[in-house]
Amino acid sequence: MMDSIYPWFKDAWIAIHENKKLPHALIFKGKEGIGKYNFAIKFAKSYLCQKPLSNHLPCEACSSCEWFPDSHPDFKHITPIENEDDESLKRKTVRKKNILIDQIRELSEYLELSVHQEKGQTQKLIATIRSRCQLLDLRGPSLDEARSFLIDQKITHEDSLLSYTGGSPFNAIKELENQSERETIIQLLSQGHNIDITRVNYAILTQGLDWTLNMIQKWVFDLLLSLHTQQNYYFKNEEKRIHSQAKQINLDSLLLFVNELNELKKIATHPINQDLQLQNIFIKYKQIFEPS
């Protein structure tokens, strides 16, 4: 748990504590990988603290802080069961009468994708939840703030990694482990119309289809952006290569491909033939380029 508030959250931290009458429910909203979870936990601890500091941080010395988070009677930490097949964990959960949820995003996606016949009811449920909560928008860090944070944490990184993660420092930390996988997929994508489909195999999916699709979507976004502005957003190190590729694309085919990626992303975590889907993706990717 963080010992202080991330610099990009300081305004939100002050604002939420200046509100003397809090709503009965809050949803912390912001892009992925900026520290929303830690902010929420720190806020809960400070709210329950008996002697909060002048900056509203918890004192870490009162009985409430000592009880938090495992033993505090007014705090329930809800997180998902990691393995649904773990029967012992299920029995333990039932015995303690705990309901476990960690990310509201996962719950929302599950409800939206689970039963498509009940789409109207699902949307109604989600809207109902949101209407009864106050949304608090948490801004993400600027590139300078994210860069300074990683330097302060003594994390060696390339600036291009922050661009790839959209300026999210915690996603950048996760992606440090995936460098070889990114380089493999970049090598394939950079071949454009000349891509060798026989080199597309299951070994690429070490991080899962959802992660791979996300990377392809970012590359395609940069293609579209480069076509109109001659600039990149995610792949700063590949700017020249993407700009060259952008001159070869068929815009109609590219837009169709974008829609297909969006549809496939919805079921990327489902038990489908991922190897076959991956090859199909790269075949269609190849087709967005005009033969030279």
Question: What report would you give on this structure?
Answer:
With 292 residues, this protein is mostly helical. It has 2 domains: 7-71 and 109-137, no CATH class; 143-286, Zinc Finger, Delta Prime, domain 3. The protein is 52% helix and 3% strand. It has 14 helices and 2 strands; from the N terminus they run αβαααααβαααααααα. The protein has helices at 10-18, 36-48, 63-67, 87-96, 104-114, 119-131, 143-152, 159-164, 169-175, 179-189, 209-229, 239-246, 251-265, 274-286, and strands at 26-29, 134-137. A two-stranded parallel ribbon has the order 1-2. Helix 5 (104-114) packs antiparallel against helix 6 (119-131), helix 10 packs across helix 11 and helix 11 runs antiparallel to helix 13 (251-265). The protein is elongated. The N and C termini lie far apart (54 Å).
Strands, helices and their partners?
Blueprint: H1 10-18, E1 26-29, H2 36-48, H3 63-67, H4 87-96, H5 104-114, H6 119-131, E2 134-137, H7 143-152, H8 159-164, H9 169-175, H10 179-189, H11 209-229, H12 239-246, H13 251-265, H14 274-286
Parallel strand pairs: 1-2
Helix pairs in contact: 5-6, 10-11, 11-12, 11-13
